[in-house]
Amino acid sequence: RPYELQERVNFEDTLDITKFIDPGHLKDDEYKYRLVAVIVHSGPTLREGHNFAYVRASQIGCQQQASHDDPTWFCASDESITEVSLKEVLECQAYILFYERVEQPKAKPVVEEHPPTGH
């Protein structure tokens, strides 16, 4: 019989799992993930209650989010969508967490430039 955990689970908006990767499989990449959504179940049992979601906006309208460091979050329920703070998201009693891998910028090769010697 499935049951719902009643204790709150602590989670963060970013995860760095590099230290858990087998060193033999490590590349030059970092293994960082950012929180993109949280499903919350409120109710007495798994079969009763209400589900809603907190969702990180990647763009608002036609505008791309300016920064991944200060995201906009929304709470989406049956009848409404409202803007919320990251603090509210991180304090919720999460049922399911969704993370996406953060793409690390690839290092550009260093090209040394030498001034002309005048020959």
TrEMBL record:
Cellular component annotations (GO), alphabetically ordered: cytosol; nucleus
Top-rank taxon, per record: Eukaryota
SUPFAM superfamilies: Cysteine proteinases
GO terms, molecular function: cysteine-type deubiquitinase activity
GO annotation terms (biological process): protein deubiquitination
Annotated Pfam families: UCH
Domain USP as annotated: residue spans: 1-102
UniProt-recorded name of the protein: USP domain-containing protein
